[in-house]
Write a structure and sequence with these properties.
The strands form four sheets. Strands 1, 2, 8, 9, 10, 11, 19 and 20 form an eight-stranded mixed sheet that branches. This protein has 13 helices and 21 strands. The radius of gyration is 21 Å and the shape is globular. Helix 1 runs parallel beside helix 4, helix 1 packs parallel to helix 9 and helix 9 runs antiparallel to helix 10. Strand 1, helix 1 and strand 2 form a beta-alpha-beta unit. Helices cover about 35% and strands about 30% of the residues. By secondary structure, it is an alpha+beta fold.
Length: about 375
Amino acid sequence: MSAVVVVGAGPVGLTAALTLSRRGVPVTVLEQGDTLATESRASTFHPPTLAMLADLGTLEPLLARGIIASTFQYRARGGGEIATLDLGVLAADTPYPFRVQCEQSKLTPILLSALPAHAGVRFGYRVDSLYPSEEGVIVHTSRGPVLADWVIAADGAHSTVRRTLGAGFDGSTYPERFLVASVAEDLTAVLPGIAPINYVFDPEEWLVLLRTPEHWRVLLPTPADTRDDDELARLPARLDAVADLGRPWRVLHASLYQVHQRVTESFRLGRVLLAGDAAHVNNPLGGMGMNSGIHDAVQLADALAGVLDGGPESELDMVAVRRRTVAVEHVQRASHDNWQRLRSQDDGYHQQLRALAADPAAARAYLRRACLLDSLENQP
């Protein structure tokens, strides 16, 4: 028997496993894939996440692979900069007053290599179902049953664990899909003055431009009821409208996906804990999904380690409630507000952003929320 089974070897699952193993808890990670996932997916790490990774001894290799972004920018489509916010105003709040731009696929090997030898990671173990028993939790996998005292489900938005337990996943789906294209272009040369992270306002076609170590990513809204092939076919023209290079953009990869705002009713169901996308999903504007998932993993795993060390389960319950509150009141609210503002034509809001950038105290308060510092410190 493993004291804890973690389902999913993404950044959330591996963070939970590393947090537990650092507390001396026997842990086994079950991953349905044969290797770690290589998709780019999330690419922004906020200051409190960097602090957690530092505590786990995994920050330095991430910094070596990523790009430090001290500023991010709001821009008007075709109209240039609206406001640039400098995360340096957070210097008194965090030792990491910046974001790091780096794909999550670069973090997971770092987390995996940091796990001690006694923490087992089993690839090719698809979890089909799980059931509580007198001995603990029986996890049925494609390679046979695994018995655990506790389970942490970090198996994504389509979580088998959550569905097996019959837990709801209430919320809504956005009226548009998001198209993400990775491009081999130096956008600083064609869009002078842009920051590593840029949110571009436009009621018809807002967009996001993000720099990562090897390329830039362009995020565009896309109708919900069109064929993927048709949307990918018109991508070159849409990129030309962002910046005319005088030649076709070099597109490395492009994909479309639906975007949801959903949350399960409880992050603790008996001896099973839900974390990250298995517990809550939101739109990616503001880069809060992976970050809040890593925060789930650290706080839930740390509380669970306390229970296994003889502490009261009431503390674990409080953490589970707190993490759900953060998901709803901080992450979902902020990411949805970001979506609404990008689609706005309100010049009054643009003036507010300019005033915000010019006022260090106001910028600090705003950035504490945007970077999830408040979600960790101002908790019930």
